[in-house]
Amino acid sequence: MAGAKTQTHDNRFPGESAQYRKARNDLLAKEQELRDKIEEVAEARRKLPPGGDLIDDYEFEEIDYIDGSTTTMLLSELFGDKDHLIVYSYMYGPDWKNPCPSCTSLIDGLNVSSRHVRQQVELVVVGKASPKQLHAIAVERGWRDLRLLSSEENDYTRDYLSQPEESTESLVPLMNVFERDGDEIRHFWASETLWTPLPGGHPRHLDIIWPLWGLLDITRAGRHPTMGPKLRY
Predict the structure, then answer these.
(1) DSSP collapsed to 3 states, 144-164
(2) Taken in order 165, 171, 172, 177, is the CA torsion positive or negative?
(3) Model pTM score
């Protein structure tokens, strides 16, 4: 992976100049280095030693999209027949008028990816907002495939660092992964680059799963310095 020999190819696009091809090949080498580095990091992630034991088998309310009714689910039950569980913490509190637009944009993507991801691992989104609030935004956004749960009545967000302060105004969009081995459930990984942002305050801790930014990055315009996703257009 890392350190692999740079590869070139003979494909050319209409009207490109020699200057363009030289610069493009230089960029291609960097893109290959990035690809190799992503693979290297993923391999290192898989080799992490066991994390901490689950400290509580939290009770969540899972929302039925049809009528907004809920089913009480323990965290241990969320695994189903899988051994890995991805939990995204939605920045939406019970006293919030609207959810976080950026979180909502990311969840739009997770909704359509969910059925594919769940062939191998379980994936859920957990919001501190009430089931009624979460059902309303799900209906508005047209979410159907995503598992959406309320943690309004448990301490999951506080314990797993998605709510650093007592007030739900402090909610942060952390992603946690848990793994199960028999009856034992352990924490595996979290998007900790949230707490080590780039200059300018951009953590980019979940860009790897968020198509919006990747699409903008392949244009000359790139990411707008201030413009982000909107809740409504």
Answers:
(1) CCCEEEECCCCCHHHHCCCCC
(2) positive
(3) 0.94
Q: Is 202 within a domain?
A: no
Q: Are residues 24 and 128 in the same domain?
A: no
Tell me, what amino acid is at 25? Answer: N
Q: At 175, which amino acid appears? A: M
Per-residue pLDDT of the chain (233 residues; tens, 9 = 90+): 555 678 999 999 999 999 999 999 999 999 999 999 999 999 999 999 999 999 999 999 999 999 999 999 999 999 999 999 999 999 999 999 999 999 999 999 999 999 999 999 999 999 999 999 999 999 999 999 999 999 999 999 999 999 999 999 999 999 999 999 999 999 999 999 999 999 888 899 999 999 999 999 999 999 998 899 999 99
Residue 68 has what DSSP assignment?
A: -
As a whole number of Å, the end-to-end CA separation of the chain is 42
User: Which 8-state DSSP code applies to residue 153?
Assistant: T
Phi/psi at 190 (5° precision)? -140, 160
- Written as one letter, the residue type at 151 is S
Q: Is 4 a member of any domain?
A: no
β-pair partners for 74: 59
Alpha-carbon radius of gyration of the chain? 20
